[in-house]
């Protein structure tokens, strides 16, 4: 219960007005329910011609004795008057109509209490999804290198759905059932405190047993949700690697692998749902046992003419039966909520994840890019493994510096330190003498444009992909950027021009076309610093020529840091740095490095073969 209340404390406060309304309507529903059932007593008295219904009853003043006795007496006085004036059958009809009217008001209040809780339930789920999405977009790239995409998708879909169906659908437990239980219990005490105290001896045992089963359910739910993540990860990997699966005739292997994970998930969710289905029959059985025990004890009180009359005891049983349904819902929620809390734990692994890339408390004033980028004694590691060691490098404004070397040598990591996708453990990265950690993150990244080896595009139109991040871009500006990137012609040749959808990740385009769209996006952003991460390495010769031409136009008047495997693309760089095992082992121009006959010369000769 503590965990459940903590979840509500985090997400419900924005919906306080709906919370107040649902509490008010629940109280009204409970009160109307109690008074509507009270009409059963005179109906039974008339039908069974009890002594109370036929004796002469006199009116008592409200301050003349016990309130409970006066209320019963005066209500009976009015019934006696009605019987005397209209007859027993007409009186039955009047009381019946009164019961129907009170029931109409009660059900109306019940509906309104449920209707006012729906905005809370749906709003909280929306807020959790929004918070998850915002957290995903704010977390550093390093977080996602440790997580599987399928697992993150599972948490945002399956786990949030489980929170909605388990926790949010159990809000009635907190805002409706306790009110009904308290109101009905108070009524039971007023009718017969002896019988109610006897009842209370039994209820705690039932509650403990249901809570014990609920705790076991949570443990199973956590494992089941983890297996659901494995299933989603398998689907995500399959969609991403479908071409390879077909090329290696591995369909059956993947089918077997998926069936194993899916069957394990099914076995666990089977146990969870089976145990969950115990809630209704168990509460039904325990409720019946409770009624039987109370019926026996109450019968003793009635038959021995102690504190209860027959009609009043039946009214007591009706109220007691009414309290059982909220208690059953309480127990049902006790089974559902642990499943939702298990999912909330998994969602919180994202929501509560530490963001190592901190925004400075007082960011340095942004003055654009005026002088140079400097790496000063920079060292960086993932976990315990050092990727970069003692890097010292200066990139002057307007110059092009190229990074070459073996795969895994730290080239991409080095350029990722400039926009603070990662933070260094030792040393500093400075722009115009200001540590990038002291700059506002958005101010810093607005200075930088990226063109990567894999063009990252969205399932949207040409126009929206090129203008991505530049909300104020006009059609003319987008077309101008596309022309510089050698993309205008093939865009106009598509069915709807710039309004043509390019498919998932640009799947309707060739590799060279995707790359030129990516370059057009960088051109439109017009950043003073440009990072090229092997932008032409995956292209054929003709596409490479077109992309290289577009890159040269983009690089004019810009400060560029380029990662290249094809040395032919960076011959004209102002400086080339050779990285080997995380350190700069050579630097200089293309001709200077060839003349040294070192590591660069070796790379050059390998590509000439």
From TrEMBL:
Domain ABC transmembrane type-1 stretches: 20-339
Residue span, ABC transporter domain: 373-606
Entry GO MF terms: ATP binding
Transmembrane segments: 20-48, 86-105, 174-191, 285-303
Keywords for this protein: ATP-binding, Membrane, Nucleotide-binding, Transmembrane, Transmembrane helix
Protein topology in the membrane: Multi-pass membrane protein
Location within or outside the cell: Cell membrane
Coiled coil: none
CDD domains named among the record's database cross-references: ABC_6TM_MsbA_like, ABCC_MsbA
Predominant localisation class: membrane
Name recorded for this polypeptide: ABC transporter ATP-binding protein
Organism: Xylanibacter caecicola
């Amino acid at each position: 219960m503590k965990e459940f209340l903590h979840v509500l404390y985090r997400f419900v406060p924005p919906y306080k007005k709906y919370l107040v309304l649902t509490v008010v309507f629940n109280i009204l529903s409970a009160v109307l329910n109690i008074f509507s059932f009270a009409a059963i007593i005179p109906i039974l008295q008339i039908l069974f011609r009890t002594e109370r219904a036929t004796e002469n009853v006199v009116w008592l003043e409200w301050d003349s004795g016990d309130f409970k006795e006066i209320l019963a007496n005066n209500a009976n006085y009015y019934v006696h008057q009605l019987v005397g004036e209209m007859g027993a059958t007409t009186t039955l009809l009047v009381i019946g109509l009164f019961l129907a009217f009170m029931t109409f008001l009660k059900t109306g209040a019940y509906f309104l209490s449920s209707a006012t809780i729906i905005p809370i339930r749906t709003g909280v789920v929306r807020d959790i999804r929004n918070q998850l999405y915002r957290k995903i977009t704010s977390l550093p790239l390093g977080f996602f290198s440790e997580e599987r995409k399928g697992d993150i998708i599972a948490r945002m879909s399956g786990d949030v759905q489980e929170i909605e169906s388990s926790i949010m659908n159990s809000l009635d437990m907190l805002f409706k059932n306790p009110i009904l239980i308290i109101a009905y219990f108070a009524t039971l005490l007023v009718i017969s405190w002896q019988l109610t105290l006897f009842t209370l001896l039994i209820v705690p045992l039932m509650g403990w047993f249901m809570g014990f089963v609920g705790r076991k359910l949570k443990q199973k739910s956590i494992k089941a949700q983890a297996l659901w993540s494995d299933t989603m990860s398998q689907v995500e990997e399959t969609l991403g690697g479908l071409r390879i699966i077909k090329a290696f005739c591995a369909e059956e292997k993947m089918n077997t692998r998926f069936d194993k994970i899916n069957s394990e998930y099914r076995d666990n969710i089977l146990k969870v749902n089976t145990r969950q289905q115990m809630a209704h029959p168990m509460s039904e059985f325990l409720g019946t046992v409770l009624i039987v025990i109370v019926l026996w004890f109450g019968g003793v009180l009635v038959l021995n003419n102690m504190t209860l009359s027959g009609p009043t005891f039946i009214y007591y049983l009706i109220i007691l039966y009414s309290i059982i349904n909220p208690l059953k819902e309480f127990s049902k929620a006790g089974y559902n909520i642990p499943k939702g809390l298990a999912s909330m734990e998994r969602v919180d692994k994202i929501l509560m994840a530490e963001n190592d890339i901190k925004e400075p408390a007082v960011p340095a004033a942004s003055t654009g890019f005026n002088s140079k980028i400097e790496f000063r004694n920079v060292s960086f590691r993932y976990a315990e493994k050092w990727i970069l060691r003692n890097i010292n490098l200066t990139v002057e404004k307007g110059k092009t510096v190229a990074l070459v070397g073996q795969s895994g040598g730290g080239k991409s990591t080095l350029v990722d330190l400039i926009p603070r996708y990662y933070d260094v453990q030792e040393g500093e990265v400075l722009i115009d003498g200001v540590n990038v950690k002291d700059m506002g993150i958005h101010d810093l990244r607005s200075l930088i444009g990226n063109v990567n080896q894999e063009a990252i595009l969205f399932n949207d139109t040409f126009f929206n992909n090129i203008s991505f991040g530049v909300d104020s871009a006009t059609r003319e500006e987008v077309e101008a950027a596309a022309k510089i990137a050698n993309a205008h012609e093939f865009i106009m040749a598509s069915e709807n021009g710039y309004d043509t959808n390019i498919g998932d990740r640009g799947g309707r385009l060739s590799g060279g076309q995707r790359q030129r769209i990516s370059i057009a996006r960088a051109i439109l952003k017009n950043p003073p610093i440009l990072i090229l991460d092997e932008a032409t390495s995956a292209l054929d010769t003709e596409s490479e020529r077109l992309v290289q031409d577009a890159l040269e136009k983009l690089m004019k008047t810009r400060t560029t840091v380029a990662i290249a495997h094809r040395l032919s693309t960076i011959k004209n760089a102002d400086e080339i740095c050779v990285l080997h095992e995380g350190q700069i082992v050579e630097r200089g121009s293309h001709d200077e490095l060839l003349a040294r006959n070192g590591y660069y010369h070796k790379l050059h000769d390998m590509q000439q073969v």
